[in-house]
Amino acid sequence: MLISTNQNRRRFLRSSIGGAAAIGVGSVLPECFAEAATAGKTMDDRVLVVVQMSGGNDGLNTIVPYADDDYRSARPKLSIPKTDVLKVDDETGLHPSMTGMHNLLQDGLFTVVRSVGYERPNRSHFESMDIWHTCRRKDEPRSDGWLGRFLDRQPATSGGDVPALHLGREQQPMAIASTKIRVPTVKELAEFQLRGDDKQSLRRLLQNRKTDSTEQDNELLRFLQSSTTSAISASERVAEAASTYRSDVKYPQTDLGNKLRVVAQLIDAQLTTRVYYLQHDGFDTHAQQAATHGILLRQWSDAVNALVRDLEAHDHGKRVCVMTFSEFGRRVAENASEGTDHGAAGPMFLCGGCVEAGIVGKRPNLADLQDGDLKHEYDFRQVYATILEDWLGTAPTPILGNSYKSLPLFT
Amino acid sequence: MSDTESMDAAWAWQPFQPSSERPWDRSAAAHLFRRAGFGVDLAGIDSAVKLAPSDVVIGLIAQNQEPSEFRSTADTLAKATLAGGDPKKLSAAWVYRLLNTPNQLIEKATIFWHGHFATGAEKVKDARMMWNQNQLLREHALGNFGELVHKISQDPAMLIYLDSAVNRKAHPNENFARELMELFCLGEGNYSETDVLQLARCFTGWEIKNKRFRKNRYQHDSEVKRVLGQNGNFDGEDGVRIVLEQPAAQRFVVRKLVRFFVSDEPSPTDAMIQPLADLFRENDLQVAPVIQRILTSNAFFSSIAIGRKIKSPVELIIGMLRSLNGTTNTPLVAEGLLNVGQGLFYPPNVKGWDGGRAWINSSTLLGRANLIADVLNDDATLFDGKSLSKYLRERDVRSLDQAINHFEHCLLAIPLDNATRSRLLETATSRSSDQDRQMRSLLHAITSLPICQLT
Predict the structure, then answer these.
(1) Mean pLDDT, rounded, for A337-346
(2) Which of B361, B372, B374, B439 is the mutation pick for testing A, counting most A CBs within 10 A?
(3) Residue A193: its pLDDT value, please?
(4) Would the CB atoms of B454 and A224 count as touching at under 8 Å?
(5) Does the structure show a pLDDT above 50 at A73?
(6) Nearest in space to B211 (alpha carbons), one of B145, B127, B337
(7) Which of B2, B370, B451 is the closest to A221 by Cβ?
(8) Are the Cβ atoms of B361 and A184 closer than 8 angstroms?
(9) Nearest CB to B431; choose among A198, A215, A224
(10) Which residue in chain A has the smallest CA separation from B175?
(11) pLDDT tens digits, one per residue of B55-77
(12) In terms of CA atoms, which chain A residue is nearest residue B171?
């Protein structure tokens, strides 16, 4: 049986606010409770899911300029045949494995921003990724990431739901490094649950909010008590999400598919987490690119399609945006081992119920390259600025360090 | 006296004199041991109560170097992990030290300096360099701050971490110079951007070659610089000296020490800091006299300190074990600490751990409870080499009620209220009749309580 989200929310509010009011500590309620109580589909309610394609995605074979003769001549072996692409218009098509994205595009849920990059591109995976994560160059101090700075500017909700979550086994991405908040990396959902065979009684013990005078004059203890209560509620909601979550959408049985299904469950469980961060690795295709790249794109396209469809079905479609990026695109010309080397500008992707669907930006000019690479038309920070301002509802300039012209990416 | 504003700064740092209102008892002694280290067992607490508090502190401070026998065992263990080159294994070797050191204050202070001169293995990637830095911090943990800063400014792990492994005249690297002033010695607002540029020039030519520090005189900018109001043809040592001469230095470091040893919040007032800052400077930036003054003070034994800090993950887990003479699976603890936000050798960034409320969110709270469960369920976890129930029986702890009292004395800064006590009893009684299982369940429950996250 499908449990409606409103029911979930009401039940949750009853258990937490009722309990807190009973002990008269309304003023120290974690922000998320107050927020949840009044939440509509406001800016505060919106979620950003970031999918990082690690290794440098070949953008030219993702959003394919199939009618361009320069494309064919630069890639005698790797170019995607005209007959295979999933056509968008007379000159552009999607890689044939991206049926999921093609469907999203037709339904108005998918946006591509072409030729995104930055000045003086760096072709090191790490350095370039750091630049994307922090918006800063190597010679500048960079202790935090762009999303970390966004989190830092949010009203303090420490003790409540985690403000951002990194799902995966990899090292935590710099993008969510913050000076104030330690964003957790969760390898699997089980980590969000109390473990052990006495967890039921422990949960009851910890959730009991009965208090006495000692607690009243120790603000830190009150903070810990309310944090614990909200942790237990969050974990209950997550557990409930995991056990009662029903979806007609079939997620692909891949690592990314599994992780995105978890994201859908958490969003549906009404967690107040604003940012989910996931990585999809393997795009460093120097040799025998065709097969690998096709698989990776299919995994990504199918998994994100499933997530977006699932969220739509659960009435969260309009409050979630999935952003995908990679640290660079690849060299225009294929190399001698049927692969491509590190390049520069590449496409970014946004999916969700609020995106202005279509393709933003000109067809890349393959006759006007810079050191064999595509020149960028948009700075990646323009996309960030748009997301920050139009999606997350915050002023982008203090976060990005400069003012960037935003793009028409949201409806 | 619920906050530092209303506390008289002179009174605050005067020696604590026990009185009937604020006695030197089990609770006060346990507080001292938790803050000056991670905790000791009840027998240790009881023998300390028989001494004067100041004598106990003097004893702790006097142990300012590891005894050679323990050191050689712990070093051997750590060095054995270096061959593999994985800094994660090094974390477990540090856990061993935390659990077994006879000099807890040194390890506590070493963790303080690790957070202060935060250097992350994720970036340095070299276990041996991380280990060498750790030894440097330990050696100077209770020593001279100035000497430590001079050494850290030539420490390979630090320079790699702050992108200063090659610092050339044509492109001075500002990162280390900036952090030296902002995070290590002075704090924001006590230097200008020009000072950063000029100080960076002093460090040109400093580089890491074959994993060792060296000065490359061809890359050193030997022109005149102007740093913090002084002019001269300075090199890096001069730069560090000039930074350390600033009056902001003593205030900056002392403020951090007070937060670490006394309370997270509210941040101590300038008036509270000044007497200790003066003491620090008078002692030529020796750390031990400041810590000694803190640990013997009225403020330290007052309500602004007791139960007014959130335990770090290390304090929680090592504290539980040390209070019960526990030993355990050290890699499990090392990994668990990383998961709940305090991976040893893996600070979040160059600012180190913020501590306080930043330790806590729904994920880390559940993670804390789970880490304790994992540790208590691990076969390697023993108390004095025995099961928990046997350990307790040998101390005449036979009933659940007595066990609650025992754990309360060792682990809690604030006494349990009756409601929680009876709920704990219910929780543990409802468990199986296996007594060891019951005791572990009780310990797990107590250490997972919000109140046990306080120290």
Answers:
(1) 91
(2) B361
(3) 87
(4) yes
(5) yes
(6) B127
(7) B451
(8) yes
(9) A198
(10) A141
(11) 999 999 999 899 999 999 999 99
(12) A139
* A223/B363 touch (CB, cutoff 8 Å), yes or no: no
Per-residue confidence band for B114, with pLDDT thresholds at 50, 70 and 90: very high
| CB within 8 Å: B427 and A205 | yes
User: Are A191 and B369 a contacting pair at CB < 8 A?
Assistant: no
Min distance B207 CA to chain A CA atoms (Å): 16
Of A198, A202, A227, the CB nearest to B360: A227
Q: Coil, strand or helix: which one is B415?
A: coil
Do B200 and B286 lie in one domain? The reply is: no
- Identify the domain containing residue B37 by its residue range: 9-63+247-301
Banded pLDDT at B1 (limits 50, 70, 90): very low
* Total residues found in chain A within this entry: 411
Alpha helices in B37-67 (DSSP H): 42-49, 53-62
- A228 neighbourhood in chain B, CB within 8 Å: 365, 450
Please tell me which of the candidates B163, B348, B373 has its beta carbon nearest to residue A182.
B348
Do B213 and B291 lie in a common domain? no
Q: By three-state DSSP, how is residue A93 classified?
A: strand
Average pLDDT of span A239-254:
87
CB contact under 8 A, A179 and B374: no
Give me the residue label for tokens 């040194």.
Answer: B106
| DSSP assignments along A372-404, one per residue | TBPPPSEEHHHHHHHIIIIIS-S-SHHHHSS--
B364 and B438, same domain (yes or no)? yes
Among candidate residues B245, B260, B283, the one where a domain is terminated:
B245
Summarize the confidence of residues B209-223 as an average pLDDT.
Answer: 94
Is A216 an 8 Å CB contact of chain B?
A: no
- What is the DSSP secondary structure assignment for residue B307, as one 8-state letter? T
Does the pLDDT value for residue B46 go beyond 90? yes
Chain A residues within 8 A of B349 when measuring between CB atoms: 143-144, 177, 179
- Torsion region of B173: left, alpha or beta (phi above 0 gives left; psi -120 to 50 gives alpha): beta
How many domains in chain B?
3
Determine the average pLDDT of the residues in B101-119: 97
Among B88, B363, B441, the strongest candidate for a mutation testing the A interface, having the largest count of A CBs within 10 A, is B363
At B227, the amino acid letter reads V
Domain identity same for B366 and B317: yes
In this prediction the ipTM stands at 0.94
- In which residue are the tokens 């046990």 written? B452
Residue of A186, A205, A227 lying closest to B365 (CB–CB): A227
- Express each pLDDT in A131-149 by its tens digit: 999 999 977 888 799 999 9
Q: Which tokens belong to B159? A: 């320079």
Sign (positive or negative) of CA dihedral B261, B267, B272, B273:
positive
Closest CA to B36 of B245, B251, B288: B288
Q: How far apart are the first and last CA of chain A?
A: 33
Q: Structural domain boundaries of chain A? A: 43-193+230-400
Report, as an integer, the average pLDDT of A280-287: 89
Nearest CA in chain B to A140: B175
pLDDT category of residue B4 using cuts at 50, 70 and 90: low
CATH topology of domain A43-193+230-400: Alkaline Phosphatase, subunit A (3.40.720)
Which pLDDT tens digit goes with each residue over B142-192? 999 999 999 999 999 999 998 788 888 987 877 799 899 999 999 988 999
Question: Of A367, A381, A371, A382, nearest to A344 (Cα)?
Answer: A371
Q: Is the pLDDT of residue B327 over 60?
A: yes
What count of other Cβ atoms lies within 10 Å of the Cβ of residue B288?
17
Query: Pairing between strand A275-281 and A47-54?
Result: parallel
Q: Which residue of A has its CA nearest to B342?
A: A182
Indicate if B270 and B378 belong to the same structural domain. no
Contact yes or no for B122 and A177 at CB 8 A: no
- Chain B hits for A224, Cβ within 8 Å: 310, 360, 450-451, 453-454
